[in-house]
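re: that complex we talked abt at group meeting.

here r the seqs, copy pasted straight from the sheet so there may be weird spacing, ignore it
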Amino acid sequence: AQSVTQLDSHVSVSEGTPVLLRCNYSSSYSPSLFWYVQHPNKGLQLLLKYTSAATLVKGINGFEAEFKKSETSFHLTKPSAHMSDAAEYFCVVIIISNFGNEKLTFGTGTRLTIIP
Amino acid sequence: EAQVTQNPRYLITVTGKKLTVTCSQNMNHEYMSWYRQDPGLGLRQIYYSMNVEVTDKGDVPEGYKVSRKEKRNFPLILESPSPNQTSLYFCASSHPRRGGGEQYFGPGTRLTVT
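got the structure back, here u go
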């Protein structure tokens, strides 16, 4: 079984300050982990992905995430928040079976608010 | 432009009136999937399809049907919609062997059943 837990349903930061969105995962297999972003009234866009290569993953718009197996975490960070970062963020764990089925499990989401 | 399209984007209907939400992708992806998004629950998979004529249930399939007669299309059918199916629906596609699990999402369909 696999699951993800996003530890904060809502995070508020001031513009120009660091962003930290927390995600813990549980997986019986070596996981692939993703962060997706959803801007208001938009679809989901891939932010970054970890697929067992480098543990520090860089994504779009200055975001990055670090895979820590010992802590079963995949937290998303950004050094300096911008107003355009206001959105909902989803941590996703993916297992691809031998039969090719992609089983995605989504976290419940973290809404990021940027204070001017 | 590579994309996943859904129609309609917004739909208000009444209980019991059959409806279909279409989904089409132009990336020649084998894998397609439907999700529903509800507040506080994230996205939950309804059905998925690994290729033409191959479909299977996801986590919340009750009340839904799908078909995959062509590679590019994966319609979601609600034979008798009920108010608890009011939700935001997303279609997604991917190429499992090349994409490493990355899925491309459509813009969403907001469905209200009264």
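couple things i noticed - Chain A touches chain B at residues 9, 32, 34, 36, 42-46, 49, 51, 90, 94, 96, 99-104, 106-109 (CB under 8 Å). The mean pLDDT of chain A is 90.
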